[in-house]
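ERR on first pass: missing label on line 2. Operator R.T. fixed the label and resubmitted. Corrected input:
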Amino acid sequence: MSDNQINPDTRERILDAAERQFMEYGYEGTSMRMITSVAEVNLAAVNYHFGSKEGLLREVFRRRLTWLNSERLAVLDALEQQAHGAPLKPSQVLEAFFGTLLRIGEDESLGGMTFLRLLGRTLTDPSEFIRTVFASEYPEVIERYKLALFHAVPDVPKAEIVWRLHFMLGAMSYAIAGIDLLQVITSFELDNIPGKDSGHKSEARNLYERLMPFLLGGLRAPLPQFSVASNEQLGASDTTQEK
Amino acid sequence: MSDNQINPDTRERILDAAERQFMEYGYEGTSMRMITSVAEVNLAAVNYHFGSKEGLLREVFRRRLTWLNSERLAVLDALEQQAHGAPLKPSQVLEAFFGTLLRIGEDESLGGMTFLRLLGRTLTDPSEFIRTVFASEYPEVIERYKLALFHAVPDVPKAEIVWRLHFMLGAMSYAIAGIDLLQVITSFELDNIPGKDSGHKSEARNLYERLMPFLLGGLRAPLPQFSVASNEQLGASDTTQEK
DNA sequence: CTATTATTAAAACGAACGTTTGATTAAGGC
DNA sequence: GCCTTAATCAAACGTTCGTTTTAATAATAG
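pass 2 clean. output:
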């Protein structure tokens, strides 16, 4: 009863199993034997199809990011074309960038929430190897959207926009990856419990509707009064004093 | 020349080495032999002093989080006391929470940026074991600040505030943990290069001054028009259509 | 001093790791 | 039929993992 599998694409089954387990246990925390056991393939199949464990991780990301980033560029192209050179609205740019991403979460064939969580989690991994995977996939998209944001929010200095783009990526990544942690930490009952399909809205859409106003508010926030030469302590308050 | 070390606290040297390497390579990616080799102690010392590798990680966090969270409570206590029951300003609450955190990044004796990065990175780790570490350290602080935010931002529904607290944690964690990734991804030159001490401002303070306006803007952002029963696609645009 | 405890040291434990090998099976061209 | 290529399989490779054991060394108390 265990050897009559007629092999519906071994490669894909490995990728699916790896995607899920890398998300759940991390790259180092997932062994080849765990993956091949879940995928119900032979242990040697991974090395045969992907060369190594690193090659497997690379392909797990590549098959999703290729779609994601080309889609992001296509959406931005379309928006800019129908704007006839006029700057886009900030909300349009953010919706193009984050909406495209979160659409993955609604479509299981694109990886669904499993891949989104893996992505959010992996972005905080500083290992050399993982960084090179993203470095080769992302620069063009980031560059295009950065420029679009420069034009969309002309009253915020460019350097500040780059910082805020960074913050926005973080808010999103973390919200996706750490969606369970919130429930560990807080006791508050959210009307739409993340992690389980609840109500009529998908988890991704629910997140999207909460995230967008937050990001927009942060992106267009008034500038900090520029460097007031403050030697006050971070976080104010004098309940504690340095030594 | 290798056995005349006069042992300036083996325990502390192990913790310091572990903190740095857990940050750099992750928990699973760091071996006991890596740690004890850097700390220049015997391999068995970790199990002697901390029982196990898990016990070591637990202590790495405990020695920092104990200070952090009691300090956060103290700062909030002081603010609320001098407000005489009046609600605090949103900026006060955020400064108390995030300022206290980022003060760690300025003080090497509290862990400095090394611990901040480890913290930001670990918060996205979904492993059962790591979750329990945080679950035991954080709930009281989160609860207190949550209530303070409810009072400080009365015109935003409570459920929405919890979501935004989550987003804020993410923006911060990610900004801390992924500070190098930004440079891989973007080619933009920031006036204050993170990762290296640049100019007169500390890395933590520079981050803090950029982060606060962003968080405030996001926290007080106008609500999304409530659930417009939209069946439009996420991210708009019709350049691509589902199947 | 001796007795006791705390700490360090070297060596080994079995288990699990990623990878490789060599045989076996399936499929398609000729 | 045979040959070639692709794919799968069981088994083993050598290495590294976290942990344990046993002995040696320092530190301290009586």
